[in-house]
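Entry type: protein chain
Record version: 2
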Amino acid sequence: RKTNEEITILSVGRITPSKGHDLVIKAVAGLIKAGYNLKLKLIGGMIQEYHREYADSLKKLAAELGIRDRVEFTGAIPYGEMPRNFDNAEILVNAVPFGGLDKVVLEAMASGVIPLASNSAFLTVFPEEIAQDLVFKAGDLEELKMKLRGVIDKGLYGDEEIRSALRSVVSKNHNLNNLISKISEEIKNG
């Protein structure tokens, strides 16, 4: 089911190779080529000057893949403005390959934005019935494209029931810190 309504996808995090922004650009480019109406917003600044080269390489990648006009590089955004960005997006892709639990995924859930994450720890966080649909293997472009296509084709981003299930995971655990410590325990005890 292709929709003409534009879907905004966020990739949030410092502009460093470890955040996997290049994978997200490639996945979105693949879906745009397949006829999906997508816009990608990369939110994040550079901490180190030497990451400027990586930032430039991301812009070049978007241009080479023919989607430069569909990708917005916002740079760093003050924390207080994040809610507005979540309100104007449907999907968040978090392609951080490993390690820590990215708080941005929980913020997306709290905002009713459908998160796709490459950290398998989220399999125990996301509501059970959709967890498998929202976690992809780190660095796996084909799987990311497939899961992204699934979220869009099934219209999950517009499904109020799913969005509220995601919200309640965060609110049930009241505060983000409790949830983060629970999940880190989970990761440690693997």
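Comment: The mean pLDDT is 89.
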